[in-house]
Predict the structure of Long-chain fatty acid--CoA ligase.
Amino acid sequence: MSVDTARPAVPHPAGADNRVVVDGVTLSWRDLPELTLLAPAVLLAQHARDALAAARHHAVHGTELLLTTASRVDAALREELSAAGFTVTDAAGRGLAPARPRAPEAGRLWLLTSGTTGRPKRVGHTLESLTTVRGQQPGRTWLCPYAPGSYAWWQVVTLSLTQPGQHLVVVEPDQLDDWPALAAAHGVDAASGTPTFWRRALHRDPAALARVPLRQLTLGGEPVDQAILDRLRQVFPTTRISWIYASSEVGAAIVVHDGRAGFPAAWLDRAAPGRPTLGVRDGELIVTSPYHGAGLAGPVRTGDRAQVVGDRVLITGRLDSDEINVGGSKVSAGGVRDVLTAHPRVAWARVGARRAPLLGHLVVAEVVAAQDLDEAALVRWCADRLPEYAVPRRIRVLTEIPVKETLKSDV
């Protein structure tokens, strides 16, 4: 990495002196290596340090940037980005020149959507639209386990960049299995992760997890059910536990701190300056957000299923994958999953469909059990709590909770 001495001096961001721990080495944002980026730039970060240096570079210089990992960008997407005028490169400057050079858009940050329902798409943001925590915060040392460039990664990173006293400990992919030890060693007292991330930690070594002195614990990125909230509360009885609904398209739209799954139904269609407006239309969550991506002003259909149950609105999963048709009866895969994970010995569950003659589909499931648990006992548990047509006909027991680079298991 080289230094571009021709660039004007620009003040460092407010969090420049916050501690940043990467690979066990403690630096500050100010101490990170300098990058030279040819804008518009796509940086394929191979290491956390490169990703953080790119975020600091953008905060200082406003370079048009899309930050992601090499594993998320296949050959076809590289060509697509090159055709859109980006220089696609790694931190050492190796990469692909733009096929159609263009002038950079100052201050623009691009995010790739998760791609769960197809090819990743680009969503435009700015550092301001990604910075959703603005008021003065108590001092914290945050764990950041997310893949560089994801919306959740930017949420933690912008907090540390823009707020004094918000330090950062980064988890590399090869450290995920043992992150509680890393967190305890560096005094982490705030951590954000997906439900899958937290379920894996509870399943692998709950005693090690309990040794992390957390004052703030946050979940997001996947449906959050009551079982995972309750299990985390058992381990962390005095910790503030929050869950967040956020996406690249609408930003951070829902934040709940009351320890209950879902959000209050009273929040629906409630307009307030500077806050998202939430709605449910035909079973789909609709969000109008001040933190939306470029070109997404007004109501945005999220593609997530939302259901009003009593005084709460529950978000159970994606519309295109949550519904299973069993002989004409509709089954929510998320609802079945919640019944399975409510079992005290089930650490994780995934529910899907299998084609079947006459009925069209049958419900099937995969689970990871915290202790020995036979399939028949789990089927009986479901039969006591679900309609007959929604009971899984086959339950496969796995030994480990699967996780992707996104920290999700696509449940």
Notes: Residues 1-9 have pLDDT under 50 and may be disordered. The two ends are 39 Å apart (CA to CA).
